[in-house]
UniProtKB/TrEMBL annotation:
<comment type="pathway">
    <text>Protein modification; protein ubiquitination.</text>
</comment>
<dbReference type="InterPro" id="IPR000569">
    <property type="entry name" value="HECT_dom"/>
</dbReference>
<dbReference type="GO" id="GO:0061630">
    <property type="term" value="F:ubiquitin protein ligase activity"/>
</dbReference>
<keyword id="KW-0808">Transferase</keyword>
<dbReference type="Pfam" id="PF00632">
    <property type="entry name" value="HECT"/>
</dbReference>
<dbReference type="GO" id="GO:0005737">
    <property type="term" value="C:cytoplasm"/>
</dbReference>
<protein>
    <recommendedName>
        <fullName>HECT-type E3 ubiquitin transferase</fullName>
        <ecNumber>2.3.2.26</ecNumber>
    </recommendedName>
</protein>
<dbReference type="InterPro" id="IPR050409">
    <property type="entry name" value="E3_ubiq-protein_ligase"/>
</dbReference>
<feature type="domain" description="HECT">
    <location>
        <begin position="71"/>
        <end position="198"/>
    </location>
</feature>
<dbReference type="GO" id="GO:0006511">
    <property type="term" value="P:ubiquitin-dependent protein catabolic process"/>
</dbReference>
<keyword id="KW-0833">Ubl conjugation pathway</keyword>
<dbReference type="InterPro" id="IPR035983">
    <property type="entry name" value="Hect_E3_ubiquitin_ligase"/>
</dbReference>
<dbReference type="GO" id="GO:0016567">
    <property type="term" value="P:protein ubiquitination"/>
</dbReference>
């Protein structure tokens, strides 16, 4: 079951099982979002956006710092990113907002200069975790926890990321059985990074609620084919 901040059940095991049997993915996705907000204490405040300010030259670093400090209730509120930059006098001014913040952050996270992700072996499109990401400056595990929160937020708000992840990563998020081939190829380093990413994801989407989705549905919802998924 999933409990709210007051310790009362938001969704019982029976509720989750019943929701998983609903044929319409539209209805299941809507139910998932409603339960997430209730579980995070945002049932009555979801319409009030949380304003987050980041510097134009440091969008990723500032987003990391801000998002990793948010509590569960703030993770469920709509986010509005405001980008600021220095003006001619040396002061700060607003230079716009970032509406497609998920894709913008994902592109920065996936960039080869970050050293966090690698293109997949098959076709080079599906991204996989870089086992050597600890070579980057700073706390590389914090980046994966942050990215997990971004993925969870994307699912919650119906935003998409163009670059897909290797499919076995979705299986790990959902707690599905992993084939021997996937397990054999996963190093201790990759497992460590994956665990951080999943923990970040669960900060936004409580793990039991994900039982209403399967692997293909999760992948479709998150990577640019949401309209097709909701037909």
């Amino acid at each position: 079951s999933v409990k709210g901040p007051n310790g009362i059940d938001v969704a019982s095991t029976a509720d989750i099982a019943a929701a998983a049997q609903v044929r319409s993915l539209v209805d299941r996705t809507k139910w998932l979002g409603e339960m997430c907000c209730q579980a995070n204490g945002q049932e009555n405040e979801a319409e009030h956006p949380l304003h987050l300010t980041v510097r134009k030259a440091h969008v990723l670093a500032d987003s990391l710092k801000v998002v990793t400090k948010l509590d569960r209730s703030e993770l469920c509120r709509p986010w509005k990113f405001e980008i600021i930059d220095k003006d001619k006098t040396g002061g700060w001014k607003s230079v716009g907002t970032e509406d497609n913040w998920v894709q913008s952050l994902a592109e920065k996270m996936f960039h080869s200069s970050m050293g966090l992700w690698l293109p997949g072996a098959v076709g080079g499109s599906a991204m996989r975790i870089n086992p050597a990401s600890d070579a980057i400056p700073g706390d590389h595990l914090l980046y994966f926890h942050f990215f997990g929160r971004i993925l969870g937020k994307a699912l919650l708000e119906g935003q998409t990321i163009k670059q897909p992840l290797s499919q076995h990563l979705y299986k790990h998020i959902l707690g599905w059985p992993i084939t021997f081939g996937n397990t054999r190829k996963m190093s201790v380093e990759v497992r460590e990074r994956l665990a951080e990413m999943i923990h970040g994801f669960f900060d936004v989407i409580p793990e039991p609620l994900l039982a209403v989705l399967d692997v293909e549905e999760l992948e479709l919802l998150m990577h640019g084919r949401r309209d097709k998924a909701l037909l």
